[in-house]
Amino acid sequence: MKRSYKYLGLLCGVLMIHQTIIACSIFTCSKNGHVLVGANEDEYTSYHNMWFVPATKEKYGAVFFGKNNMQAQAGMNEYGLFFDFAAIPKIELENQKIDFLGMTEILVSCKNVDEALVLLEKHKFAAPASQMLMADASGKSVIVNAETIVPKTGNYQITTNFNICDLKDEKYDCLRYDKIDRTLSGANDISVSLFRDILDDVHQEGSLSTQYSNVYDLKNLKIYINWFHNYRETVTIDLKKELKKGFRIENLGSFFKQKNFAELTFERADKNYFYNLIINKIEKNGVDEGLKLFEQLVNAHPDKADKIKEDLNWVPYSLISKARIAYDNQPFDYYYVSFLNNHRTIWKSKNERLFQSLKILDYIKKNDLTDNDFHFHESLGYINMVLDNKEESIENYEKAIVAAKDGSWEKIRATNTLNKIKNTK
């Protein structure tokens, strides 16, 4: 029976940091005691992170994959629960009110698909243009979008980039889906190598290119990763071992050998190329070296100086989001909606990345590089809120409210946040 989920998935339209859910191929199969998932992450932009979140007394351990805003695209937890997203044509939603918990919460709170569905029923999500596949170590899986939940009925399930509701009447046109379907329907057994071959067979190149391909072994808690559609080099992640090493954020591409020509060409064509270069430099060598690189890039590319300056204004958002992930595994992006609806509690931290962000914002102000007064003061207000500098936070949120357009989401969000700060002891 068709079930309706009016709100589900990732925030669409309010994410402010360089990320969109793009075309992907995701499939799972359980056969002969094996439970595997294959996933190609296909995007127009490069640079991806992998971060490990160890278990606590209240939360399960997990690994996540995503871009520099640290919004999780996919992940698997210590019990073998998995999720990943694919883009689909937008589904129109009525009476949409966002109460966003986040997919990261599912992996740290749930052991299996059934528990995840119970959690989803308690919260409202907004994902009119995406579709999620969830699977667990028992072999159970579901595909979920804003219209329906479709459980796996055979031994495999696939999602690509059409609404799964169109599958029954064959109202879709996707060669990738058909290729995966033919291979899995004819397979007498499944293996990591078979799944890798399937991912190779349906990978994409060009402006929309497969960034990484993962095979997840949900029973043995291992992930086999191929980078930028190079299926000759595979990195194996043993989740149990990696979680014992503690929390950390890794540049996924750094696990692989020297970049090939195709990857270098794609990377340099990425609209976020300079943004990623600056962030990488800061992560490796600190803020001072990152700002030196910024100046070198502006001087070396005068025709792109405005874009590089704009990118620098976005760098603090990435650093703030990584600080937030380290605190409670919730990306900074969720702030935009949580304070819009006036229900998020204030978190406190002295994470080094927050101080790095302040230093960058100070540099931006001193060199008159601010590209948006509202975002500048909101960033300062937010960082000082987290650092427990109440007066500085209030001062900057008041300036942000003045800079925001009347009636805008930005003004509502900043006003709600300011009220929360003033009422917090």
Notable traits:
single chain, about 425 residues, alpha+beta, Penicillin V Acylase, Chain A, Serine Threonine Protein Phosphatase 5, Tetratricopeptide repeat, eight-stranded antiparallel sheet, six-stranded antiparallel sheet, 14 helices, about 20% strand, globular, disordered N terminus
How would you describe what is shown here?
The protein is an alpha+beta fold and 425 residues long. The chain folds into two domains: 240 residues, 4-Layer Sandwich (Penicillin V Acylase, Chain A); 151 residues, Serine Threonine Protein Phosphatase 5, Tetratricopeptide repeat, CATH 1.25.40. The protein is 39% helix and 19% strand. The strands form two sheets. The protein has an eight-stranded antiparallel β-sheet. A hairpin with a 6-residue loop joins strand 12 and strand 13. Helix 9 packs antiparallel against helix 11 and helix 12 runs antiparallel to helix 13. The radius of gyration is 22 Å and the shape is globular. The protein starts with 23 loop residues before the first strand and ends with a helix. The N terminus is likely disordered.
